[in-house]
Amino acid sequence: MNVTEDTSWRTICAAKKSAQLASIPAEWIIKCLPELESQGSVRGVPARSGLLSERELEITETTDVALLLDRLHSAEWSSVEVTTAFYKRAIIAQQLVRPSVRIPSAFCGLYALRPSYERLPYCGAVNALEGQESISSVLGPMANSMSGVRIFTKSIIDAKPWTKDPVALRKEWSESEYRLYDHGKGHGLCFAIMWDNEVVRPHPPLQRAMAMTKAALEAAGHKVIDWEPHRHLEIYKNAVRILLAIDSLSSHGFVPQETIFVADGGHDYRTQCELSGEPLIETMLPTTDPHPSTLGEPFVKTLVGEASHLSAYDLWQLHKEKRDLRKSHLDHWERTISRTGTGRPVDAIISPAVAYTAVPHGLNTYVAT
């Protein structure tokens, strides 16, 4: 269905927003929202909003989920109190925040897990590019503590999601794997730090954080070596690009490559937008008073070029290239056994989630590591 009126999607959006606000109890509406938004950071909004009592702030700012569960178990807090407090805090978030997972967590000092694909259930989730299975998207938790990530993940796996989602892996929670029994039980590990992926160099705050991490690991008795970057630009061009697909990069000096994501040339996005007439959002830059950018165009476009529609055969070649890159990277990892001193390849690679600290809206132009 094509919508011819330019304002129809705006009308639908306004109606949805009105319905959302109408569903919130009047006493839970933030009256000083414009003032709070003008302060830039939204991290202090729950405390400044006036909607949460001191006790509710204490409950919702308890970052250790295990401690929260203990206080529920001991009846120090009631289930009603905890549910109401988090319900109110969620409603506050619905009036300000629209989060993702990996990069927002890094920007905001949170813990997050981007699991291997098909490890946690995805069946029934609303998504774009439905039917694109070349590289599966995943769902994962965001939390204020590692205990929260662990409890969430274990709870989901303990519910046997493979009985509801046909592609979820049939693999129960393994406490021995969690405690690293096959990795020296967590003692005397060897980590590799990727200081630079030879595509984008992390900014000084990220380099400083990695140096602090290295020092802490070594002080705890672990070994840290440098990770030697391996074909990262090829991996990036094959898999990570979201909106662009190309036929050739010869004008940029790169070997001709093509991308898996949106090998349809953006057809799915356009088709979905045509249902309402809404324009395709190509940037998150604000329409008023945007932050200036020193880049002439998004960096991903500089690396990749313009989008194009790929044939089924072209996509198969990308799949073959992806398998070859995976094998090459696996072999590269396994060869580190000669450098670790543990009799094993490196136990983990450490790198920034993104190459820079939090940026103004619209300037998060490079998302690969």
Overview of the molecule:
By secondary structure, this protein is mainly alpha-helical. It contains 15 helices and 5 strands. The protein has helices at residues 8-22, 33-37, 45-48, 54-60, 65-73, 79-94, 102-108, 146-158, 175-178, 204-219, 232-240, 267-274, 299-304, 312-334, 337-340; strands spanning 111-112, 142-143, 190-193, 223-226, 348-350. The strands form 2 sheets. It has a 3-stranded parallel sheet, with helices on one face. Strands 1-2 form a two-stranded antiparallel ribbon. Helix 11 runs antiparallel to helix 14 (312-334). Mean pLDDT is 81; it is low at 1-6 and 241-260.
SSE map:
Layout: H1 8-22, H2 33-37, H3 45-48, H4 54-60, H5 65-73, H6 79-94, H7 102-108, E1 111-112, E2 142-143, H8 146-158, H9 175-178, E3 190-193, H10 204-219, E4 223-226, H11 232-240, H12 267-274, H13 299-304, H14 312-334, H15 337-340, E5 348-350
Parallel strand pairs: 3-4, 3-5
Antiparallel strand pairs: 1-2
Helix pairs in contact: 4-6, 11-14
Low-confidence parts lasting 5 or more residues at pLDDT below 50? 1-6, 241-260
Strand count, sense and barrel status of the largest sheet are:
3 strands, parallel
Q: Beta-strand level of the residues, as a percent range? A: under 5%
Radius of gyration: 23 Å
Helical proportion? 25-40%
Mean pLDDT: 81
Globular, elongated, flat, extended or rod-shaped: what is the shape?
globular
Q: Which sequence of SSEs, written as H and E, runs from N to C?
A: HHHHHHHEEHHEHEHHHHHE
Count of DSSP strands? 5
Quickly count the helices. 15
Strand order of the largest sheet: 4-3-5
Structural class of the helices, strands and pairings? mainly alpha
Determine the N-to-C terminus distance.
40 Å
